[in-house]
Amino acid sequence: MRKFSITMLVIVALFIGIAQISLGSLTWTTTVDIPSNTAFDLEFQLWDWDWVLNSYALIDNVFTMDIDGNIIEMIDFETESNEGFKEDAYQDPDSVSIVAGALPGTTGSNWMMRMDEDPSGWPTVTWSGFLPSTAVSLSFSFNFSAADPTDEFQAYLYDSSGAPLIGGVFGSWDPVIVSQIGNAPPVTVSGGSTVPIPEPSTILLLTTGLMGIAGYSGIRFRRKRKR
Known about the structure:
The chain has about 230 residues and is an alpha+beta fold. The protein has two domains: about 1-25 and about 200-225; about 25-195, no CATH class. About 20% of the residues lie in helices and about 35% in strands. The protein is built from two helices and 13 strands, in the order H-E-E-E-E-E-E-E-E-E-E-E-E-E-H. It has helices spanning about 1-25, 200-225; strands spanning about 25-35, 40-45, 55-65, 70-75, 85, 95-100, 110-115, 125-130, 135-145, 150-160, 175-180, 185-190, 195. Strands 1, 3, 4, 6, 7, 9 and 13 form a seven-stranded antiparallel sheet that branches. A six-stranded antiparallel sheet has the order 5-8-2-10-11-12, with no helix packed on it. The two termini are about 15 Å apart.
């Protein structure tokens, strides 16, 4: 009985550890609907409250899509440039860069944008001039590696006058459309969605496998006792 109990404790501890790693390293995709003929700016920003510069965000596959699924505009950084995203002039020019690789859990991309915490302020990049002629969905994928639980990644959506395009995460006056603090799941504006990559089915499959191991261990233990 003691061996079986120890086995179960090890399996549970292993599952908890893997689950924490999975949640902390997920790539997320945010989607928000945009009205037709609406010019807007998209902005990404890192917030650091302890001035320990150890968190960063990876961003890729920024695109707009019409209701028929046709991609209107695609920014995937495969030209190895910022592709229209501009960094705030007062920031350290090394805080935003284009790096090789794909977001964790994704394939098919060779380059992505990386934002690192900045000693001169909060790194900010903005893409200005989106002007869809029809209603579209705006989507982008990101991975936030937060070394401190108070660090935050945010995406903002402004209209052409600089006002919030839609009611934000924290109220109608707020332009934030998605916010992730630490390694907690992101919070998305009402009407939008943020889903993880890989999907939760991957974690479910892992759980099923561990439960199978636990069940098999229990059967072997009972058989040994009967002998």
